[in-house]
Design goal:
663 residues; alpha+beta; 3 domains; eight-stranded antiparallel sheet; 21 strands; elongated
Length: 663
Amino acid sequence: PPPIPPLPPPQCHVGAWLGPAAPEAGGGGTIHTSTRAQYWDPHRWHWAPTPGTGAPHLILGPHTSYWDPTSAPKFGSLIHPSALPQINKVAKAVAAAHTFFVANPEHMEMKQNLEYYQMMAGVKESDFADLEARPHMTEFRLGVRFYSEEQPAAAVLHLEKALQEYFVADTECRALCEGPYDYEGYNYLEYNADLFQAMTDHYMQVLSCKQGCVTELASQPGREKPLEDFLPSHFNYLQFAYYNNGNYEKAIECTKTYLLFFPNDEVMNQNLAYYTAVLGEDLARPIEPRKEIQAYRQRSLMEKELLFFSYDVFGIPFVDPDTWTPEEVIPKRLREKQKVERETAARISEEIGNLMKEIETLVEEKAKESAEMSKFIREGGPLVYEGASVTMNSKSLNGSQRVVVDGVLSAEECRELQRLTNAAASAGDGYRGKTSPHTPSETFYGVTVLKALKLGQEGKVPLQSAHLYYNVTEKVRHMMESYFRLEVPLHFSYSHLVCRTAIDEKQEGRSDNSHEVHVDNCILNAEALVCVKEPPAYTFRDYSAILYLNGDFEGGAFYFTELDAKTQTAEVQPQCGRAVGFSSGSENPHGVKAVTKGQRCAIALWFTLDPRHSERERVQADDLVKMLFRTEEVDLLQETSTEQEPTAATSTAGLHAAGKDEL
């Protein structure tokens, strides 16, 4: 995007407020941008009405502004993208925001803007358009999407169009390389060359630039690296798409075209043999690779030969953007030199890697020792909510970083949340639709916070019950932060209200658990007495909690074990309003005994200390709560909290994965 213009003087009017009054403002006013040092900041905001409620909502833009209710409501000469909603150009605002975010995916303020726009009435999915999208890349993405969706005809259409647009863009890119010599800053003051040297330098720069078009056309906004082998990949997709479409002539043509770049590709040669056998040798033999690709490859190889020659003889550096370049194109002396450099770099990299591993291991061991010691010293902070009390601590639970708290919910709140579960939950929710994910003797029904709020918004379940569910999870999070005396806030990793119900006819002779012993952030190997912290385990989880809604069932006790998954160290009987909290590491293997009769309901919560892994759905739920409930409303947290709340989670980078380890 173009650079942001310099900040206007203090008296410059940027935009007028046309919606409901901003907080503490008696009516309309004007947004000002200040050049004073204390106002300098890379963000600008304006208030916009929240959909459904009309409550003011903050929209961030490129400058920081402040609200002045005394100024005359009028527009000045500067209109920034964030002011577009104020002049009823929401579609353009959405497109501008989306375009900026595509190129700057880490920009949190613009991400918040887009999430707000998604909730606005009248905003269509088509409004989220990338205004700077390149035609060849757009067509390629569409082709790959249809290919993945097994729609070969549509995939062929878009991939062929992508090739046409690619060569249009390639021609334009190469033409732009034929400009004046780039002296790289002020080097022209010292540049001294005769006619032939100047011609060589300039021509090599032009050729290198033209080769760079491969990288330029394969690059996508917001991504660090270009798509590898971008042009050949078109024919990889096309050959199989044509085959699925029954067009063997085109499949052979695209296969042979791909083999121009990678003649030794085993899979592609097998495909060619198969297509040839199906079509017939006589019909397949005359089919040649596409002529324009043959010409493209030949031209590229001739340019590379010149560039590698100048690298070898004149020392003018050249980095080949392609992986398909034949080895014989590179001069032998240069190949040997590059081989030595690669081997040296690999050896140094390996040595550095081994050294870093040793340092990391020492640091981790020291940090673990310190952390374990501090955990024993630090846990035992206040619960911050009246009525809640510690029933069992780490000592009475025979472990570390463990606690059982009673009185988190009242009996009526437990009943209300159970009714919500029975009304809103769906079978297999959170388990990719599997109704009995852990044992065939029980069925699982669950609902997430966001889903409950959306159902409440639609009037399918009581909205206040969904709000209670949201507030209760916040309550548990605050208690965990305070009790374990954490110095940084916890962020939700996943939240799930789930009920597991015993199947009566499958209880006879049952010997399994409702959930076998496991660890929340590593893969438990009970035989080796180790827990490996690597995917597919949720390695980013740091603390876990379970809040029980009832105890009127048989079985279903929660228990801790040693690493052998057999030696039980403590057992907790579920009951209404009882919460179990613990750290998610190898110090706390746990499981759930079989539910043999009735229904066991609980809210399972996982937390992370790393905001990058905070739950995306939770951020959406936070925004929905703000939209549905006015700020003057006193929620459950404000009624019961006795201390100042910790800082709320702000990151939205976490991912919602299916198949959680329910507790």
